[in-house]
Specification:
The protein folds into two domains: about 50 residues, no CATH class; about 140 residues, 3-Layer(aba) Sandwich (Rossmann fold), CATH 3.40.50.1820. It is built from ten helices and eight strands. Strands 1-2-4-3-5-6 form a six-stranded mixed beta sheet. A two-stranded antiparallel sheet has the order 7-8. The chain is globular and about 55 Å long.
Length: about 240
């Protein structure tokens, strides 16, 4: 019974992909969110994305920035079923902000590959010192450099470049998105768990609250974060 159900779900997704030109945007958003969740969450046994899409083209880049050399992994979507590559695709910059240990890199690269299979040009930039796993601070200049590089690529829709940022990278991505050189061109900033002050952030986690204007505020996770509604919100922005 479980096997039959899996094939029915796969058949339904194949039908949606086959009707790609006819998709309404809400259907696209829901389908992409479901494919992302099924691919990235190990609790979900059915992973149809690799069967529905071709592997992305993976490039290694070196970029120049005011604070030094930036290295990056770039993923370009590959058309399905022999179709010609679209002239310009939306793009996503992954902003991490901290060094990524060797054992964790396959997870991040896999996530970038998943997003690319869903139709996005994806770049993961980091300062070369972080790439050598040195514990040094990242700079917003890294993400500004990545953004400006994407603006020069023919594969990228220049009005649809977004920053998806996590933790320390969320705060740095916010600063980069506000930079006058690119601020008017940033389509969206997806902000996960960023903070202004690391000490205040750690205290807020331990105490389940924070102080604002001399008042104590208790905070709880949003319900949408619990039921993965945030994934749908991402694709609404990109």
């Amino acid at each position: 019974m479980k096997v039959k159900l899996r094939y029915r779900v796969l058949a339904a997704l194949l039908l949606l992909v086959g009707l790609d030109p006819l998709w309404q945007r809400p259907i696209q958003i829901h389908a992409k969110a479901l494919l992302l969740l099924s691919q990235e969450f190990p609790q979900i046994p059915l992973k149809p994305l690799p069967r529905l899409t071709n592997p992305s083209v993976h490039e290694h880049l070196e970029l120049e920035s005011p604070h030094g050399k930036v290295v990056a992994d770039l993923f370009l979507p590959t058309p399905r079923f022999g179709q010609e590559r679209a002239s310009a695709q939306p793009a996503v910059i992954l902003a991490m902000g901290v060094r990524t240990q060797a054992k964790d890199r396959p997870l991040l690269l896999g996530f970038a590959e998943t997003l690319s299979r869903l139709g996005y040009v994806v770049i993961w930039p980091r300062h070369e010192t972080l790439d050598r796993e040195e514990a040094l601070p990242e700079s917003p200049e890294t993400f500004v450099a990545a953004f400006r590089h994407l603006q020069e690529r023919n594969e990228v829709a220049r009005d649809r470049i977004s920053i998806v940022s996590f933790s320390v990278g969320a705060s740095l991505g916010f600063v980069a998105a506000a930079d006058a050189r690119i601020a008017d061109d940033v389509r969206a900033l997806i902000f996960f768990g960023g903070y202004y002050d690391i000490f205040d952030y750690l205290v807020s986690i331990v105490t389940y609250g924070s102080a604002f204007n001399g008042q104590r505020i208790t905070w709880y996770p949003d319900e949408e974060m619990i039921d993965y509604g945030f994934v749908y919100a991402i694709f609404e922005c990109l």
